[in-house]
Each structure stands twice: as C-alpha cells, then as structure tokens.
Amino acid sequence: MKLRIGIPKGSLQNSTVELFRRAGFNINVNERNYYPSIDDAEIECVLIRAQEIAPYVQKGAIDCGITGKDWIEETGSKVVEVSELVYAKQGLGKAKWVVAVPEASSINSIKELEGKRIATELVSLTRKFFEKNKVKVDVEFSWGATEIKVPMLADAIVEITETGASLKANKLKVIDTVMETTTRLIANPEAFKDSWKKQKISEIALLLESALEAQKRVGVMMNVPDSKKEKVLEVLKDKNPTISTLKQGGIDVFVVLEKDKEKSLIPKLIEAGAVIPKLIEAGAEGVVEFEISKYIKGEK
User: Fold this and answer.
1) Apex CA 208: angle with CA 178 and CA 8, to 5°?
2) Same domain, yes or no, for 78 and 193?
3) 204, 255, 266, 288: which has the highest count of C-beta atoms within 10 A?
C-alpha cells in the first residue's frame, strides 16, 4: 500500500520540498516530471497547483496534500485538516489576501470601490468579503500577474502577500485585508479512516511540525564551574535545561532556546537569544550553539 500525497507546484514548491527535507524526506523534483521521487517506499508524490489540491483530496484522487487554508475555503472542499504548518514562500509566517489600489489613487477605503472592477484569483472569497461589507463590485478572475492589472484593466486587486514587497514594487497600497492564511496538511476523509493511512499521515504531520518548530529554536551547550552554577541556572530557570555533573567538577548544561525571544549581543552567534551574554557573565564556559533538526513540543 502507498500513500499518495500532493505537493504544491508553484510558489510553495521549493519551501515545501525543503520542509520535507528537514523532516527527513528527500524529494527529488524533475522539471519534466510531475511525479517527484521520494526516499520513502510507502509514499508517492504528485505535483499539483495549490489551488487544485483540496478538490483532488476531497475526491480521493490523492490521499492527502499540502495547500493553503485560503484554497480550502475558496473551493469549499470537505477535507480533514490534519495540521496547520505555518510557513510560506519566503519564511515561517502567515500570508494575507489584501485589497490593493494604485498608490496615486484617492481611494483609501473599500467603501469607495462601490461599482468598481476587482481582479483576483480568489474570486469566491473576494465576492463574499465585499458582500459582507455591503459593497457592490464586479469581481473578475485573474490568471496571474494580478499586480499589473490596475489601473488599466481593473480598479483594484485582491492579491496574496507575505511582506508586501511585490505590491510596493508595483506602486500599490493596501486598503484592507480579506483574510490571513496558513499552509495546511489535509487528508481525504475516507483515507483518514483507514488505520494505515491515518497512521502514515499522522507520522508525516508530526515530522513536518517538529521540523518547523526546530527552525524557531537553537540548541546551546556549556560547561559551568561549581562556583558559578547557581548564577547560571538562575538565568535558565524557566528554560528547562538538562544538567549533567562533570567528572572533573562543575556541570554540563544543555538547553533549547527560542530564536525570536531576544537577539544575541555576541557577534557571530546566530540568533541564539540575549540569554547568552548573561550566561557568559554568570560564568558559563565553552558555550556552543548549534542548529537542531526537529523539536517536538510536549503536552502543556
């Protein structure tokens, strides 16, 4: 038996293949082949546009797949959302579908778009958004390159963005947000009732989640003399360090730190957190920082 999984072709492709690599799966994509190889004999991959993955998963053409919450809702697909995987094309974050108009436009509110033409790939959710806000607009499907549609072909666009850089480059300004979206691992309801497939999908979800969590953290090891261990452990009191007694005296400390809490003040240490200078001041020696490949959260 094999599990057939849809890998998003397009903007999410590279980041998804990289995430699978971090999770322990090596996917080899051939530009001329829509069936990438993977070093797991129980998995078969197929490259599909993210917009189409949810409908194919619902139909059972594939057992599971990676796509955005936006496309699940846009297509109205009935699928099992196994896991939320917060990553996008450029990093570990959410993306947003926004309403944008030319920077030079006098329009600053969606209310001012009454009777105007809107270009977007996200047609259904865009219509619902404007209907909810009681603004009558003409929503047209865009096949791509949506940013260049205004002002000649449309009065405004609804487009997805992570950083806003592409919108700024095309001299557009955001006047509202339609929705935030994150990447999801989804499964066909019937496939998820199959014990073997459910177990396999759940294992993949756990590995992908742990690989994402690991990217947010860094491992740190250090030796601490007996005379300074009380001070160092006070700095780490809420970090749950692992402590070992050294034969020659002192302790060895291992701790996992979140990268985004505070930036390091020590040059050449990459995003280890501002606790490191405090550790050295407290008396820690031989401080070593290293990347971790997976981090599995415990029960809260």
Assistant:
1) 55
2) yes
3) 204
Token readout for 266 is: 């020590």
By the 8 A CB rule, do 217 and 96 touch? Answer: no
Q: Give a yes or no: residue 299 inside a domain.
A: no
Query: How many whole angstroms separate alpha carbon 173 and alpha carbon 108?
Result: 9
Does 138 map to a domain? yes
pTM, rounded to two decimals? 0.84
Same structural domain for residues 170 and 36? no
Query: Residue 46 — φ and ψ, nearest 5°?
Result: -140, 135
Query: What per-residue confidence (pLDDT) applies to 286?
Result: 67
- Asked whether the beta carbons of 15 and 87 are under 8 A apart, the reply is yes
Task: Supply the mean pLDDT for the chain.
Answer: 88
Within 10 Å of residue 32's Cβ, how many Cβ atoms? 4
Residue 10 to residues 83, 196, 271, Cα–Cα distance (Å): 21, 30, 30
Question: Would residue 295 count as lying in a domain?
Answer: no
H-helix or E-strand spanning residue 290: strand 285-290
**Cα gap 97→109, rounded to integer Å:** 16
Beta bridge partners of 255: 220
CA Rg, the chain, in Å?
A: 24
Nearest to 218 by CA among 115, 287, 165: 287
How far is residue 289's CA from residue 172's CA, in Å, rounded to a whole number? 42
Angle at CA 70, nearest 5°, toward 67 and 71? 55
Distance CA 27, CA 38 (A): 4
Q: Residue 271's pLDDT is what?
A: 30
Domain count, the chain: 3
300 part of a folded domain: no
Burial of 148 from C-beta contacts in 10 A (0-12 / 13-18 / 19+): middle
- Domain membership of residue 144 as a residue range: 95-181
